[in-house]
Design goal:
Elements (H helix, E strand, L loop, with lengths): L3 H17 L4 E2 L9 E2 L15 H5 L3 E4 L7 E6 L8 E6 L10 E8 L2 H16 L7 E6 L9 E8 L5 E8 L2 H5 L4 E8 L1 H9 L4
Antiparallel strand pairs: 1-2, 3-4, 4-5, 5-6, 6-10, 7-8, 8-9, 9-10
Length: 203
C-alpha cells in the first residue's frame, strides 16, 4: 500500500501533468486505467453522459473499421476543453449504453518536431507518475496506402494490458492537403480494443 505522503506526491505529479502537459486526471491512484480521465471522460463511462445521440450522429467523423464492426469511433469537439480541442472515443456500436472503451485527446501541429518535443515531455511526466516502463515503436499509418504517413509511439501497459498511449503522426503532404494534419494523440484504451486494432480492424 502507498503511504499517505506518497499518495500526496502522486497527486501532485498528476496535477503537474494536468496543468503543464496534456490533462490526465487521477481519481484515486495510478493502479488502473479507469483512474485517469481525458477531458473529463474515463473508460467505463457512458458516452451518453457527455454527448447526445444527435451530437454523436453529427460528429466530425464516425469511422467503421474495414475488418469488423466490433467498434466505431466518434471524432468530436471537446465540450470541457481542459486541454484538447478534439476528442475521439471508441464504443461498441451494439452497446445501447455507449460504454467508452477508449478516449483520446488530439492536438494538431504545423511542425512534426514540435509534436515530438511535446511527446517526450509527456512521456517523462508519465514515467515520473506511474511505475510502468514504456514500450516504443515506429511505423506507417494504416490508412495511408502510399506508406508516406508515419507514426512514432510510446505505450504504457498496465498489468491487465489496458494502456496509455502517446503517438505523433507525421502525415504525408497529400493527407495534410486533405485536412489530416500532423497531430499528437494521448489515449486511454482497454485491452479489448487493443486486440481488435492489432488483429482484426484493418484485415
Amino acid at each position: 500500500h502507498i503511504r499517505h505522503s506518497e499518495k500526496v506526491f502522486t497527486m501532485k505529479r498528476l496535477l503537474i501533468i494536468l496543468i503543464l502537459t496534456f490533462s490526465f486526471q487521477s481519481l484515486t491512484n495510478a493502479d488502473d486505467i479507469r483512474d485517469f480521465k481525458i477531458e473529463g471522460i474515463s473508460i467505463g463511462d457512458s458516452l451518453l453522459d457527455y454527448y447526445s445521440k444527435k451530437e454523436l450522429n453529427n460528429s466530425f467523423e464516425t469511422y467503421k473499421y474495414p475488418g469488423g464492426n466490433d467498434f466505431v469511433y466518434y471524432f468530436l469537439k471537446s465540450k470541457n476543453v481542459i486541454r484538447y480541442d478534439f476528442i475521439q472515443t471508441h464504443v461498441n456500436p451494439k452497446d445501447k449504453n455507449y460504454v467508452v472503451e477508449a478516449v483520446e485527446g488530439h492536438v494538431f501541429y504545423n511542425k512534426i518536431s514540435d509534436c515530438y518535443k511535446e511527446m517526450n515531455i509527456i512521456k517523462q511526466d508519465i514515467e515520473d507518475t506511474i511505475n510502468i516502463e514504456a514500450t516504443n515503436d515506429n511505423g506507417k499509418h494504416p490508412t495511408d496506402k502510399s506508406g508516406k504517413s508515419t507514426y512514432k509511439r510510446f505505450t504504457f501497459f498496465f498489468k491487465n494490458n489496458d494502456y496509455i498511449e502517446i503517438v505523433c503522426y507525421d502525415m504525408s503532404d497529400e493527407f495534410e492537403e486533405a485536412g489530416k494534419k500532423d497531430r499528437l494523440i494521448v489515449s486511454l484504451s482497454t485491452k479489448k480494443l487493443y486486440d481488435f486494432l492489432t488483429y482484426k480492424a484493418y484485415k
